[in-house]
Amino acid sequence: MTLFAFFNNLPSLLVVVPLMMAPIAALIPISQLAWAATLLATAVSFIAAVLLHMLTGAGARVTYYLGNWAPPWGIEFVVDSATSFVLMVITALGFVVTLFARRSLASEINNGDLGKAYGAWLLAIGGLSGLVLTADAFNLFVFLEISALASITLIALGAGRVRRSLIAAYNYLIIGAVGATFYVIGVGFIYAMTGSLNMADLAERLPDVANSTVIYVGFGFMVAGILVKAAVFPVHIWLPSAYSYAPSAVSTLLAAIATKAAIYVLARIVFTIFAGVPDLTIAAMNWVIIPLSLAGIFTGTILAIYESDIKKLLAHSSVAQIGYITLGIGVATTQSLTASFIHIGNHALMKGGLFMAVGGFFYALGQRVTVYNIVGMGRRMPITATAFLICGLSLIGLPLTAGFISKLYLVRALLDDQALVIVGLVLLSSALSLIYLWKIVEVMWSNNPAYNDRDFTEQPALYIPLWMLAGANIWFGIDSSFIVKGAEAAARALGGGL
Amino acid sequence: MIMAFLSSMMSVQTGMLIGLLTPLVVALLVPILAVRSNWRDAIGPIGAVVTLAGAIRVAGAVFNGEDATLFIVSFAKGLDFVFTVNPLGAIFGLVASGLWILAAIYSVGYMRGNHEHHQTRFAAFYAVAVHAAMAIAWSGNLMVLFIFYEILTFSTYPLVTHKDSRLARNAGRLYMGILVGSSVMLLLPAVIFVWVTTGSLDFVPGGILAGKISGTTASWLLALFVFGIGKAAVMPMHRWLPAAMVAPTPVSALLHAVAVVKAGVFTLLSVVVYIFGIDFLAETGASDWLVWLASFTILAASLVAMTKDDLKARLAYSTISQLSYIVLGAAIASQIAAQGAALHIVMHAAGKITLFFCAGAIYVRAHLTKISQLDGLGREMPYLFGAFFLGALSIIGIPPLGGSWSKFYMMVGAADRGLIFVLFVLGLSSLLNIYYLLEPLQRAFFRPPSGDVKIEKHPLTVIPPVVTAALSVALFFFVDIFAGFTRLMFG
């Protein structure tokens, strides 16, 4: 096989390697080996994603026909700068969180279930990668279900320690299924009108049949279904309990990457499939996505302010942060899309780090982490707490952290678009987010006599991956060129028609 | 002679690196040397001297018109992470690093004399705050300035809440809430607006906004800056400053009388001189409203100060009032008034740090915080109250003390622009100052002692205020060192 042929097959590796490794990991009886197999698969995926990013960085596209069936009949994987950027975020975080999972998962789920957990873990990552890669609207539904069912399994595995994770998983199952069904109904309508499922092909055919209620309804169903998956307000209700009752490593994985893939799909639907029907998409942006994003930003922030359970607080904050990303998509300029992509990467870094740190506290405390029992943890677990602080400061956008770059580009894009009211709301919410972070920070370094005679040893297996993310938050806050260039290329590739 | 020696020792860039990095190195060394408290406490003053050497080298270069630029990395197209020293920044750098030497010595005496807990953490964050102040002084553009403005807020939070009490925590919330809230909601959009409008955030003599925006827009933009820069404590954004007085006095002295609040007015002055441009503001009248607001703050804060019996609270309101002198100097929109504002950064720093040093020393030595408790203590602590007298005279603006120059410049500027009422405001404010700053002295020297107060000896808390008081006198005679810089401000 020549080198060129190898590069042509890269897209398939991202799906095939995790999906193939999943049953193997599930069948390995020794959990350490299952973990090693998982780590290997995520590492290979990450390398493949980095290579793809290098190939597509200059605006090139890589296509892959599954089983050599040419589109529009066969399934096609398309990788452009936008795809490869999101893939890189997913696989990078997948790898780092897998590093973290060995200690964390082993302490939070029954030993006999560990193999199955790693199997589901790989299915989730592979499914999300496929979701991003595929250029076929129906195939997208398949990957949506693979990743969703795997995530639900992972959440439910927390039931050994926290019974409520069963209810959380069930909620996600029902609401997620409704979302997926909506999406597939929408695809049905579109297919009925155009006779095609390939995205590029759909984009060509749709303008001819655009003036039809069927198309409007189909578009509505597709977008509504994906909004559920992306946890956009008000259909985010599955997210807070799913994130907070799942095992720590699972929360971290889901918070870092799960909704990002769905947000990417939302952008694909609007900017690729329906690119030729601007009346429809512009109306959807102005009347649905922008208002819902703003509502989500404020609901998430305010609920986080009043929450005392830290995992749940972070989950509410995720709803708000998703709002910033979808806001950039809704404003629909090349600059605002750039801001969205920057935040897709940066939010994965900061929220991944925060959930990991909470996992570290949970490991040491042996009970749910709240603002009451975190008092004094800054002194007892300085390595974990400092990383938590760094990621938290990044979350609220302190300069020299990645979060500041996100805020800077989002506000600049909004000001450039003369959206002054939205700028005001975004900045207000950003200032409010200081409150929920600070109520944790201000007690963390207080004196807590209750912990004076307890021994908290910090595990390198938990804090090394955590510090990889905390370090990345600082690195990309000082030299943001890598993420910004990737995001600019992604925005150009995705919103070429803007 | 010092200048020639330093020039031969290091290049300008090295001087900048030394000035910026030494405080950080101190912050890192403090926890490492914490096992030996003498070593840990020696590193602060030593680092401060090194930092001042760097600042002097850089200031000399700026005075001679040399280029003082230090490039770190590029943020985005046309926006670099870069340090460039302009005359105004050179002044602020000298003030921050020079007074740090005395504050570091004082801090050792105060923290030890008071048996404060967590002295290592305190010393480390203190140095980080100085680093942020130096970086603000030498920032190459508005974005870099904003970055370190925020870092200064966050690095001083552990110092404000040092006592770890409910009171301290509530003060910390107010501190963070006002300073971070205003900077995120008002200052940041103002900065980005300038960036989007002009495509640049560089500090250029004469400004970069002239011709790009209308006079009305300029008024609104200036309002975003004035209220966004909460550290300048223009009313109604001033509440954080009295709240921050819960911090140990070395923090109130160096940070909340010099580094933090001067960073605020320095930012505002830089924005007025290098982003708007004095001429642009004078032509459009975009800063006329600010003359009124600053005048109001000057008088209102003085009136509040008169009602405070707590010495630090009174000094805090006096600071609010004095900061608005600098804001006023910027708002008058004449070159001579802006020069006066820049001079006042220096003069007020020397005077006010003296007063805070004295307040803290009185607390450490006699455990008194209220002005009404000071009766008859003048004879017990003659050096302290002598220093207090000189510092107070400088702030009131009486020759031969430094503070008289900056007021004189501002009055000339106001008369120049035909703002006669400003002369009345400044005169009235001086009268109020005389009342509330000299009252403690009147009590200490002319009233009989009330009961017995035990006085302890802590020489490290007495020497610094005596030195800074002498500095206030010296600044009257050697004002031209700084006035020379202010003349270079406009290119």
Helix content of chain A: over 70%
Rg over C-alpha atoms of chain B, rounded to the nearest angstrom: 21 Å
The SS-based structural class of chain A is mainly alpha
Quick one: overall form of chain B? globular
The overall number of domains of chain A is: 1
Please name the two chains that share the biggest interface, counting residues whose Cβ lies under 8 Å from a Cβ on the partner chain.
Answer: A-B, 30 and 29 residues
The radius of gyration of chain A is 21 Å
**Lateral strand order in the biggest sheet of chain A:** 1-2
Q: Write out the strand line-up for the largest beta sheet of chain B, numbering strands in chain order.
A: 1-2
Helix content of chain B: over 70%
- Major pleated sheet of chain B: 2 strands, antiparallel
Question: What's the gist of this structure?
Answer:
The complex is a heterodimer of chains A (498) and B (491). With 498 residues, chain A is mainly α. In chain A, 77% of the residues lie in helices and 2% in strands.
Overview of this protein structure:
The complex is a heterodimer of chains A (498) and B (491). With 498 residues, chain A is mainly alpha-helical. Chain A has one domain. Chain A has 20 helices and two strands. Chain A has a two-stranded antiparallel sheet. In chain A, helix 4 packs parallel to helix 14, helix 7 runs antiparallel to helix 9 and helix 9 packs antiparallel against helix 11. Chain B is mainly alpha-helical and 491 residues long. Chain B has a domain of 205 residues. Helices cover 74% and strands 3% of the residues of chain B. Chain B is globular, with a radius of gyration of 21 Å. The relative contact order of chain B is 0.10. Chains A and B meet through helix 17 and helix 18 of A and strand 1, helix 6 and helix 7 of B.
